[in-house]
Amino acid sequence: MLKASDIFFNAGNKSILRSVSASFQPGKITMILGPNGSGKTSLLKICSGETLHYKGEITIEGKALPSFGTSELAKFRAVLSQQPHLQFPLSVEEVVMMGRYPFFQFAPTLHDHNVCNETMELLQVTTLRKRNYLTLSGGEKQRVQFARVLSQIWGETLQGNRYLLLDEPLNSLDIRFQQEFMVIARTLLNKQTVIVAIIHDINLALRFGDEFIFMKDGEIAASGGIDIVTPELIKNVFQVNAEITQHSERPYLMFI
Q: Where are the beta strands (DSSP E) in 73-225?
């Protein structure tokens, strides 16, 4: 389990997060939702270990996050950021292999190559394996990056649970791959995986999420299961009016 306890975070003189507490359970996708500037990405970066200057405590399986070494953490925690920056002309298969760096010192093993082949096939980028990554479209790059983070947490870990943190992973994808991306994410839940995702499409989040955290002005406005989603909550958090209908046993928002 990943747990954030009483997190405060400032950027300069600006308060970004105030007394934020949340827990993320294995076998569930927790969706973090909220308007721009509500603190979603800051919370995710703190939970991933990327941002260190905060007050409060982050624990993984009851152990303080800073006590994990960087290489140790990388073997069971993977992060897909909004816009992964890569300026070197690497091939697609070299980018995917970057996810295996924590597992070898000098050269990848046959197992490392097999893992990358499996994740590339899963994300349907095998035919791009020799392409220069920088020449790909935005959607193709995002699929390659997802293959990379999957290769990082593929298979069992000594830690027990695996952790996948996703910051707006669907922005560059067309509708088909948005759906496939989330279906793939859900298949990982059978393998002791904690998934935390920031997604702007509320209806997509409602379709695939198990737990929900709604943020507003650096605080948690509401958290819990799908039953917490009401027109009143949407109005409070996003300042828009919405009606809720049912679609395939899941609520669907109609914005007014």
A: 77-80, 162-167, 193-198, 211-216, 219-224
